[in-house]
Amino acid sequence: MSVGSLGAGSGLDLESLVKQMVSAQKDAKVGLYQNKINGYESELSALGKVGSAIDNFKSSVKTLNDDELFTGRDAKIAQKEGEEVISITTDRSASNGSYSIDVNQLAKGSRVMSAPGLFSSPDDVVTDQDAKLTFTAGSNEFSIDVKAGTTLSQLRNQVNTSEDNFGVSVNLVDDGAGNLFFTATSAIEGAENSLRISNDVIVRDEDGNVIEDVPEAVSLPIEEEPELEELSEPAPVDEVDELDLEGDEFDFANDGPIPKDKEKEKAEALAQSNAEMDAKAAEKAEVEKAAEADATELNVLPQKNTSLSLNSVSTEGLSAGLYTPFGEEARDAIITVDGIQIRNDTNTFDEAVAGLSIEALAPTEKSTKVDISFDQETVKDSIKEFIDSYNSMVGLLQASTDRGAVLNGNSMIRNLQSSLSTELMSSRGETGTFTSIFDLGVKMSSQGELSLDNAKFDDAMRRGYSEIAPLISGEKGLARSLEKLLDNYTGSDGLTNSLKDSVRRSIDSTEETLEAYEERMVKYEESLRSKFTSLDSRLAVMNAQGGYLNSVLANMQ
Fold it and tell me: How far apart are CA 532 and CA 13, in angstroms?
């Protein structure tokens, strides 16, 4: 027999004896407490599932209680699946009716490209000076700074990765015949939004800083030479008339008066013209001198044209290297609705027809018929969702309250089941066409589950669609009544959460009681150990004394 620390003196297994005594006192009662806690936790879990089912059902009820459900519109488009030419989104403001729609043209962005022979390699340098390239499409614009020595490949990456890029994609295309084409495509659609690319030279001071405001004198355009008046040509010589005498007032040969001091007047006119030309030349020299002085002070040179000034990748100016191929211009989308042609800068027409958003997907060869009507399919789907969630909830309630189930006899669930049946069976119709949801094709089985007769429901919608809304979502409608009922069971103050809080408090209370009892058992075990330790000590002394007496008696023999 193994001997523990307790009982070492007496030689008895007092350790096992203490454990058995504590277990006999503790285990049965601790088991009762634990079973009680487990029961509460099972009840809490079941209430959680019930609460979730009620919340799901309430969500479907809330969908039915939305007036817009019955005023929504649906667009039926006469087109085959996979061959769609238009897409239409409706809102409740759309008018019921039919439309004939043609897609005449789709909107597109623009594309520009370089001429053949302009580039031959991605490593071609596009500028030998710092410059700025600006991309514009309509109201969209972004710019990039291009450093001297930038190649086509580097420019392509710089444009495509720019954070400000509004939708320009640059590519390099090699035709295999020694020609490399620089192409830029804009995603901005609309006839007024064709892509334009312009460039400007960046002027820097001697420290390399960009000069934002360059004096006008530095960038003054070169003026054309002024046209000179042809005053230096020799004057025509009058014919000599023998009848003309000095001092006469008439020139008989030329039939006119003889000017006085004619040679003198011509000389004075020529001198005045020369003086004006000299003045203009002096003024021009002063302007050029001032510009040169400003340029020297700023350590910059006047702008000049070079073969590497980004003109090759620009669409603006006489020396631009990019052009827009025929058919690659940005263009509007064009549709025709009931014979009325409508243009738009994108393929989505939000304002063409009130209540409709029309998206053009592909050009059409013939008109496409569109019928706008109440969205009966969505109403039908919503009622099916209501039925499914109702059946799911009722099934769970039934399973949770069956004999032996954890919620068997739960009064909250019994009251909910009874209230639901009452609401479903109540008469609500105001016009007499439909008095309850069962008039719409809803049926209830003997187990309390609902189902929908599709044919009867479709017939009901044809006979009186306008009367379904008051029956379901009206002031006294089924959905509104059910939502009010379910409000008592859901939410932080609902009966379901209140009951769960009560169960949680029971769990906490039982756990506290169990903890207190286990503390008492610890003290009980300590008391036993103390008593058996004292007993063990006494038995050890008695054993020692008995051994001594036995040895003495043995020696006396």
Answer: 10
The residues with which 360 forms a beta bridge, in sequence order, are 86
Domains of the chain, by residue range, sit at 1-72+375-543, 75-105+336-373, 111-203+303-323, 250-298
| Rounded distance between C-alpha atoms, residue 164 and residue 160, angstroms | 10
pLDDT at 85: 96
> What is the rounded CA–CA span in Å between residue 332 and residue 109?
9
Model pTM score: 0.55
Distance CA(476)–CA(364), nearest Å, equals 49
Reduced 3-state DSSP string for 425-466: HCCCCCCCCCCCHHHHCEEECCCCCEEECHHHHHHHHHHHHH
Residue 229 phi, psi (nearest 5): -70, 135
Query: In angstroms, what CA-CA distances link 72 with 154, 361, 480?
Result: 54, 24, 19
In the three-class reduction of DSSP (H, G, I as helix; E, B as strand; rest coil), residue 298 is classed as helix
Pairing of strands 140-146, 196-201: unpaired
151: left (phi over 0), alpha (psi -120 to 50) or beta: beta
**Confidence band of 466 (pLDDT split at 50, 70, 90):** confident
Cα separation, 149 vs 126, whole angstroms: 7
Stretch 394-422: mean pLDDT: 88
Average pLDDT for the chain: 81
